[in-house]
Amino acid sequence: MQLTFRWYGESDPVTLGEIRQIPGMKGIVSALHDRSAGEVWPLEDIVRYKRHVESFGLQLSVIESIPVHEAIKMGLPSRDEYLDHYRETLRNLAQAGVSTVCYNFMPLFDWLRTAVDVRLPDGSTTMAYNESEVDEAALLTGKLRLPAWNITEQHEELNAMYAYYRTMPAEQLWRNLNDFIQAVMPVARECGVNMAIHPDDPPWPVLGLPRIIGDQQGLERLTQLYDDPCNGICFCSGSLGANPENRLTAIVRHFGSRKRIHFVHLRNVKVTRYRSFYESGHLSQEGSVDMYSVVKALHDVSFAGPVRPDHGRMIWGETGNPGYGLYDRALGAAYVHGLWEAVSKGGEGERYG
Predict the structure, then answer these.
(1) What is the DSSP annotation of 69-108?
(2) Which of 12, 30, 48, 116 fits 8 for a cystine, CB–CB 3.0-4.6 Å?
(3) Are strands 194-197 and 231-236 parallel, antiparallel or unpaired?
(4) 210 near 169, Cβ under 8 Å?
(5) Do 173 and 210 touch, CB atoms closer than 8 A?
(6) Angle of helix 248-256 relative to helix 216-225, nearest 10 degrees?
(7) What percent of the chain clears pLDDT 90, i.e. is strictly above it?
(8) How far apart (Å, rounded) are the C-alpha atoms in residues 70 and 197?
(9) Can you tell me the mean pLDDT for 292-301?
């Protein structure tokens, strides 16, 4: 396991100097955030960014993500240009020495929460999703925006895409995803890049928009579209764990034993009712995910790739990007590191003294 941390570049309130002080931290998960979806990432920009990360004694371990342009997800004729750009960016990343790319195929809104500052009994604040509180108007007017969203469309264009997706059957989105996979994976294989799809978050349709990567069946279908190890998944315990029907350790063992897990997000969620949850502290006892069992399953399948603590609460008065503060994610990293050491030693600790 390689412990990594999400960083949003020079504008991130959390600095690389702070991240490097987290015990066991080895890598950074990031992207060229000044590039819009569909643009080619120039090789020189990637190399410059990578060298900056390395100057702090860290590795640029994962690109999360190269945004998939909506024209590709919608299956529009203009997608061919954006597919060319995506392939060129993959080649540039490979040339710069980056070998893992995380992406998603969620229509329009990416990962979604209905509140970003829910106060928990201990005084911390966190993000939450309640199905009954999804605000269509807030999303379509831009009132609600979340970290890492890459939406640049204006109001009228956004509404038009929203209307288009609402009429799209799930099978059409699968066909569009297949077209993307067939266009991109041969280049990934050629360049030695592992592609890791992130599960839909939350893992069910939102506002009538199709979502297709929310359970083991969807992930399995994805891997069969191009049956090669480069076509893999990002296992996210929080996204998948929001649906109590997902058997997380079974998913890890199924895909991990086939070497199809290329990247891991570890965080906990507390399911409160049907299609509603909040993001709890990372500890097993805080949420609905048995983090120890998930980490043990990863160890049992000999997972050796990048892992990052995912969204955290805002604690100790910290302010910043919701879910992406330093303190709680650092605690999560230490917790994950401790779980990994425990399962690695099999409970047989060495005696000192």
Answers:
(1) PHHHHHT-TTHHHHHHHHHHHHHHHHHHT--EEEE----S
(2) 12
(3) parallel
(4) yes
(5) yes
(6) 20
(7) 84
(8) 16
(9) 98
The answer to whether residue 145 is domain-embedded is: yes
Please give the pLDDT value at position 24. Answer: 96
Per-residue pLDDT at 153: 55
Q: Considering its fold, how many domains does the chain have in total?
A: 1
Is residue 350 situated within a structural domain? no
What is the overall mean pLDDT for the chain?
93
Whether this model's pTM surpasses 0.90: yes
Q: Which two tokens stand for residue 131?
A: 């199905």
> Average pLDDT, stretch 140-155?
59
Q: Is residue 351 part of a domain?
A: no
Which of 96, 102, 103, 99 lies closest to 42 in space, CA to CA? 96
CATH number at residue 56: 3.20.20.150
* pLDDT for residue 351 is more than 50: no
Q: DSSP 3-state assignment of 294?
A: helix
Which position has the token pair 């839909």? Answer: 200
Say how many residues make up the chain.
353
Return the active site residues: 198, 236, 265, 310-311, 324
For residue 343, what are the CA distances in angstroms to 290, 296, 340?
A: 14, 6, 5
| Cβ neighbours around 235 below 10 Å, total | 29
> With 60 as the cut, is the pLDDT of residue 148 above it?
no
In a domain, 60, yes or no: yes
Where in the sequence is the domain holding 35, given as residue range(s)? 2-345
Tokens (6 digits) for 51: 């060298």
Q: Distance (Å, rounded) from C-alpha 79 to C-alpha 334? A: 42
Distance (Å, rounded) from C-alpha 63 to C-alpha 19? 17
Q: What is the pLDDT of residues 249-280, one digit of tens each?
A: 999 999 999 999 999 999 999 999 999 999 99
User: What's the pLDDT tens digit per position in 94-111?
Assistant: 999 999 999 999 998 888
Query: What does the DSSP assignment read for 329-347?
Result: HHHHHHHHHHHHHHHHHTT
